[in-house]
Amino acid sequence: MLARIGNLDLVAKTVVDGFISGLHRAVKMGAATDFAEHRPYTRGDDVRHMDWRLFARTDRLYIKTFEAETNADVILVLDASASMDYASGAVSKFDYARYIMASLAHLAARQRDRVGLVVFDKALRDWVPPSARRRDTLLRHLARAQAEGQGDLTAALDDLGERLGRRGIVIVVSDFYAPPNDVIKALDRLRARGHDVLALQVLDPVERDLALSGELVLEDMETGQRLPVSTAVVGDGYRSALAEHVQALSRACGERRIDFACLYTDQPLDSMLFQYLSQRARLVRTR
Amino acid sequence: MTWGLFNPLLLLGLSALAVPVLVHLAQRQERDGRRFPSLMFIRQVPFQARRRRTLRDPWLLLLRCLALILLVLGFVAPYLERAAAPVAPSELDLVLVLDRSYSMAVEGHWKAARRAVLDRIDSLKSGQRAALVAFDERAEVVQALTGDAAALRSALDTVQPGSNGTRFGAGLAEAGRILKEGSARTGTVLLISDLQASGASDLDALSLDPEVTLEVVPVSGPVGANAAIMSARLVDGTGLPSDRGTDLEVVVRNTGDAALEAAELSLELDGRRVESRPLDLAAGAAQTLLLPLSVARDQPLGVRLKINTDALAADNTHDLILPPRHPIRVVLIEPAEPVTAGGLYISEALRLARSPEVNLQRLSPGALNPAALSDTQVIIWDDVSLPSGPVAESLSAFVVGGGGLMVVAARDVGSAWPDYLPGRLGPRRSTDADGLGLIADDAGVGITSPFAWDMGTALDAVRVWSYRSLETAPPDQVPFRLEDGAPLLAAREHGAGRTLVLTSALDTGWNTLPLEPGFPPLLQAAVQWLANWTQVPGAYLSGSVVDLRALAVVTPGAADWLRYLAERGEVVVELPGGGAWRLPAGQALLPVAEVGIHEAHRGDGAGPALRIAVNTDRSESMLDTLGAADLARRVGRRSNAATAELTGPGAGAVSPVGLYLLAVALALLLLESAISNRLSVGRGRLPEPVPTMNRTGAVP
Question: Do B90-220+625-645 and B328-530 agree at the fold level?
Fold first, then answer.
């Protein structure tokens, strides 16, 4: 799978480069054009990134410009609430989300971006700080993550916003099972802090179509609540409500220039990524 | 409302007859639920039902229906008996819950809210009682339940928009309490508010009685331009001659729905206007301004930022008390003739410290004496033999008494290893040419916290080739380890003091640590932890509790305050509005509600005043609103308020006739259970429990 994505990188270089460079334009506002190893300290620079050896020697202040620093922080935010554990086929939503994250980490690492990971349910559960060198660590944490417990997307994203110091690209992968207004406000608050936000909604095809037959007792995977339903009776209403939810998220994200895509686990991951990257690149070019 | 056999509510009760029909129609019960990601969308479908194919056991069905009819009649009997009785006033209780947060001061909003309250007061029925609750972040009963409309109007006249934020839960909970403590549990809560979305954060904890009806009157309208000072903070420079010094970074946002034009932001220092900047902001836009602060900071400095005019006055002022520069006093003990540049690395890294600054004195071991220790908060012992004799005793007493000691233990620390240092020092170990990296292992000490998020790469490149082994055991902490698990930095709390041990020299032959950009913040964080230094906020939010002891620590000349507070001295607080408040003797925690600058004075008049700046919570300035239906839904989800209208007055009172009917119904149900069990056993399986659906279809 990753090999195919790699091929896509080569074949569709414009799309992928446009994707990454477009994101950087939004975040760094042109600062990344200076690739000097050192540059004089200017007001507003973080003194913690000072080249300390030069300072001790010369009593002049220089900022050590890291290779990674010229690129963006990419924060992958993974919803690990129990609802993500649903699978009608071989791949659960959580697995699919992890594949997406691994692929995006791979793409970002190729661009020498600093990639970090945040796993949350009702609060931030696990994190790997953004780094250009810790992709292996990130993948280990990703592999170790389990989808369980109740989720609280709003609280977790707000907490994340408080913790993220440096502006970057925040990619949230979730089923976004919360009222659209709450989701949008949480994403918007991240965007208001200067981050470029991408929201990827992952759904299972059975979940999308309510492709279950007969009269059932459905059990909510997060709350454990049970509800007797006749799929024939509620099917249309359910599909309509879900579609409305997705459309509300898509529309509100579009209005706020938050990128949004809805992905289904029965579709090949690489083609979905390709489709999304193409869409993202087109958006960037029109900005 | 009168009650009779054809009352719609009674008919609604009879509709429960559908339940046994549904139960009888259930032929394919599932014992186990099928796991599904979320039921939130299914719950939005207006009605769910099982389709069943055939009726089974019609006699059993009739029995169940009869039992239900008797149950309904049993509960309705009191109403039938009291059909002609007048409704008691307490059964119509109304609580008016009026939002007085500062956002209600928008022109037109307050007037509309008052109008809504007055209309409702005017429409009170004869004998009906009402109460008035005003709320912002807290609720206040302005008028308890009364049938006196004039008293309610007078009470309304005393309420004005204040300077606090919105918490719907506070007002609704108070209203629920009033109704609950009234003579009947039923009643109506009428919420009048601009329904700011930020005020809904405490609704999840709200538990409103299910029998209470909630009505919402939204107050809305154009806001105009509203510039809010969202935050203000110090941005310290590097302190070098080339630097400009300290700036005040101010973030202003126009949260209104119109552009802000030709406004002005001014800066006052201790009441003296020193700077102003023009403000032009589109609706929703934010601007960050840097205002230079070129003033001496040997005393706390009162800063006030003001915007001249716009829709909301409450968020136009922001107060801040800038703490005086209060350097940490550090002594660096180094060899008389250093063989490494460790001392240079340490001194230069600490020279960069700004919040707080560090005053560093470099001494050789022989120069250390009790006098030098008395004025020192932290000692850094850089790879020199640990002392013996009287100096060792002084050092031990220094730590026990609250001092901080950091020992760089590499070459020459000697064989003595005092018990106030963490772990047991072992021999030197060396690695291959690749060396070892660092792992931040324990955030409990706080030294690693600067590296948690935005400093991910600052220590990434550190390589360590040589280090001393150190055997540690709880309660020692190890903030940084090497990749092989060996401690690089270990911590211990001993007496009132704290100690750290670094197991590798600050020497490029041992490691690259001092050359990395993360070294200065690492060393600064270590010194702050050793000095037990804590950041005191320059401003508090209204509703906070201020610890006067923490303020006393950072206020020059206020050291006696701690003793004074410990001896249960009385404190007088001058409030911004001009009043004064006496804290109970011995109380050091001051709750602050009023916006502005408070001054706390010792009751005996000695010592300097402690100054406290208090601002409003600026989330109140974000004027996004919640729909009335959304709010009702969020309350109703927990309280079932939507069903309240279906609940009649006097519920719970059962008449003798009703008791008789209920008893018969109970007997029929027992009979039904017995028959049902017998039939089920005869069919080879137990009957499935019947889920009871509420109005949303959820199974409780």
Answer: yes
Q: State the Cα–Cα distance between residues B449 and B458, nearest whole angstrom.
A: 13
- Report the residue from A131, A214, A218 with minimal CB separation from B39: A218
B342 touching chain A per CB within 8 A: no
C-alpha B490/C-alpha B476 separation (Å) is 7
DSSP codes of every residue in A194-212: T-EEEEEEEE-HHHHHT--
Which 8-state DSSP code applies to residue B252? Answer: E
CB within 8 Å: A218 and B42: yes
> Which residues of chain A does B237 touch, with a Cβ-Cβ cutoff of 8 Å?
43
Residues written for chain A:
287
CB-based burial label for B390 (10 Å; 0-12, 13-18, 19+): exposed
DSSP element (H, E) containing B218: strand B212-218
> What is the H or E stretch that residue B21 is in?
helix B18-25
Give me the CATH code for the B227-318 domain, please. Answer: 2.60.40.10
User: Can you give the pLDDT at residue B446?
Assistant: 72
For residue A285, pLDDT beyond 60? no
CATH 3.80.30.20 is right for the domain spanning B90-220+625-645: no
Whole-angstrom Cα distance, residue B509 to residue B471? 23
Q: What share of chain A is helix, strand, coil (3-state, %, to 5)?
A: 50, 20, 30
Q: Does A1 touch chain B (CB under 8 A)?
A: no
pLDDT at B505: 92
Q: Which residue has the higher pLDDT, B258 or A24?
A: B258
Helix H or strand E segment including B134:
strand B130-135
**Residues of chain B found within 8 Å of residue A47, distances taken between Cβ atoms:** 238, 352, 354, 520
Class of domain B328-530: alpha beta
CB contact at 8 A, B334 and B362 = yes
Report the DSSP pairing between strands B246-254 and B610-615.
unpaired
The domain segmentation of chain B, as residue ranges, is 8-87+650-682, 90-220+625-645, 227-318, 328-530, 540-610
Q: Which of B287, B37, B520 is closest to A150 using CA atoms?
A: B37
Whether omega for the bond prior to residue B218 falls within 30 degrees of 0, making it cis, is no
Q: Does A93 touch chain B (CB under 8 A)?
A: yes
Per-residue pLDDT of B526-558, as tens digits, reads 999 998 887 788 888 887 888 888 888 777 776
Assign a CATH topology to domain A72-286. Rossmann fold (3.40.50)
**How is residue B472 annotated by DSSP?**
-
Q: What is the DSSP letter of B506?
A: S
What is the SS3 assignment for B223? coil
What tens digit of pLDDT does each residue of A143-194 get? 888 999 888 998 899 888 888 877 788 899 999 999 888 899 889 888 887 7
Q: What residue type is assigned to position B197 of the chain? A: A
| B292 interfaces chain A, CB cutoff of 8 Å | no
Peptide bond before B356: cis, by omega within 30 degrees of 0?
Answer: yes
pLDDT band at B627 (very low <50, low <70, confident <90, very high): confident
Integer Cα distance of B329 and B363 in angstroms = 13
Q: Does A237 touch chain B (CB under 8 A)?
A: yes
Q: Where are the domains of chain A?
A: 34-69, 72-286
Q: State the pLDDT at residue B113.
A: 94
Closest in A93, A212, A241 to B41, CB measured: A241
Confidence of residue B22 (pLDDT cuts 50, 70, 90): low
Which of B26, B14, B15 minimizes the C-alpha distance to B57? B26
User: In whole angstroms, what is the distance from residue A42 CA to residue A50 CA?
Assistant: 11
Which residues on chain B are in Cβ contact (under 8 Å) with A233? 47-49, 51
ipTM: 0.75
CA distances to A168, B450, B456 from A115, in Å: 10, 18, 10
Tokens of A120: 């949350």
Q: Is A264 touching B (CB cutoff 8 A)?
A: no
